[in-house]
From TrEMBL, chain A:
<protein>
    <submittedName>
        <fullName>Putative transmembrane protein</fullName>
    </submittedName>
</protein>
<keyword id="KW-0472">Membrane</keyword>
<dbReference type="Pfam" id="PF09489">
    <property type="entry name" value="CbtB"/>
</dbReference>
<dbReference type="InterPro" id="IPR012667">
    <property type="entry name" value="CbtB_put"/>
</dbReference>
<keyword id="KW-1133">Transmembrane helix</keyword>
<keyword id="KW-0812">Transmembrane</keyword>
<feature type="transmembrane region" description="Helical">
    <location>
        <begin position="21"/>
        <end position="43"/>
    </location>
</feature>
From TrEMBL, chain B:
<dbReference type="Pfam" id="PF09490">
    <property type="entry name" value="CbtA"/>
</dbReference>
<keyword id="KW-0472">Membrane</keyword>
<feature type="transmembrane region" description="Helical">
    <location>
        <begin position="81"/>
        <end position="103"/>
    </location>
</feature>
<feature type="transmembrane region" description="Helical">
    <location>
        <begin position="213"/>
        <end position="232"/>
    </location>
</feature>
<dbReference type="InterPro" id="IPR012666">
    <property type="entry name" value="CbtA_put"/>
</dbReference>
<keyword id="KW-0812">Transmembrane</keyword>
<keyword id="KW-1133">Transmembrane helix</keyword>
<protein>
    <submittedName>
        <fullName>Cobalt transporter, subunit CbtA</fullName>
    </submittedName>
</protein>
<feature type="transmembrane region" description="Helical">
    <location>
        <begin position="175"/>
        <end position="193"/>
    </location>
</feature>
Length: 62, 237
């Protein structure tokens, strides 16, 4: 493998790891948004639908 | 398949399994205790004491009375169906966070290691907050909701950061930082219920509810952890 090939392979490796990191972080953010809506939203309808689930899953409720 | 899609597929599958399983456990335990507690809550509402209390202060009961005016699922099948849906959504949300963090770390996780990830999740969102804000039955007096939510979220994040430092950094300074982080929310203290307020349901019912909620949550997190780890590895190959 030539030096330039080695450099481009290493660069591709770094690019992939950054992409993977961003994708994983995006998944974490999505998860937090869902938990925020189901467990913490102050909208009455959402609260009432999730009521028993909130109490049982130990989210602060009421 | 992109990593994001793998995480989402794994999390949705995990969420469906864990959400349905935990709902079944809740219907045998916590849901029935909530219904019993609501009998006490409704008795107070109809006796008129509640109206007098709510006109004086913005207690948790006053907030609840206001919420009761909005749509709510009818008792029975509809209410249970919404509990299943919201449990599945909660499990998908937590699975996305857990699997996302496992993916950020970048090492495959076996189902046994997944159990430890699950225990860590349980420690962050159940065990740590329980010292200040234990699971509550309807009608339990408490501080204003936003204050409790902020403390709960802060405690969960501080505990997560603490576990991350202690387990993955393993340097003396990290252990010290972990101890400080885990202690801070409890030194600050959870927002307290107003003085003189008392729970509507008997104390024994409240205790039984806490035991059921904690045990069900433990099952929730052990299942979530072990399934998240193994399913992500499956989707990734």
């Amino acid at each position: 493998m030539s030096a330039s090939q080695a450099i481009s392979t290493a660069k591709a490796g770094i690019d992939t790891s950054i992409v993977n990191l961003l994708q994983s972080a995006l998944a974490v953010c999505f998860g937090l948004m869902i938990i925020g809506l189901v467990g913490f939203s102050h909208i009455d309808v959402l609260h009432n639908a999730a009521h028993d689930s909130r109490h049982a899953n130990a989210f602060p409720c009421h | 398949m992109s990593l994001f899609r793998s995480i989402v597929f794994a999390s949705v599958l995990v969420g469906l399994i864990v959400g349905v399983a935990v709902s079944a456990a809740q219907f045998l335990g916590t849901s029935q205790l909530i219904l019993k507690a609501e009998v006490y809550e409704k008795a107070v509402e109809t006796s008129g004491q509640h109206a007098a209390a709510s006109s004086k202060d913005h207690s948790a009961l006053a907030v609840h009375a206001h919420e009761a005016e909005a749509w709510e699922p009818a008792d029975g099948f509809e209410r249970r169906a919404y509990t299943v849906v919201t449990n599945v959504l909660t499990a998908i949300g937590y699975a996305l966070v857990l699997t996302g963090i496992i993916a950020i770390r970048g090492k495959p996780v076996t189902w046994r290691e997944g159990l430890l990830w699950g225990l860590a999740g349980f420690a962050c969102v159940v065990l740590a907050p329980i010292f200040g804000l234990p699971p509550e039955l309807p009608g339990t007096p408490s501080a204003p909701l936003p204050n409790r939510q902020i403390w709960w979220i802060g405690t969960a994040f501080a505990t997560a950061a603490s576990i991350g430092l202690a387990v993955f950094v393993r340097k003396p300074w990290a252990v010290v930082a972990a101890v400080v982080l885990v202690a801070i929310p409890h030194l600050i203290g959870a927002p307290a219920a107003p003085d003189g307020a008392h729970a509507l349901a008997p104390e024994a019912l409240e205790r039984e509810f806490i035991e059921h909620a904690v045990l069900t949550s433990l099952v929730f997190w052990l299942l979530l952890g072990s399934l998240s780890g193994t399913l992500l590895s499956r989707f990734e190959t």
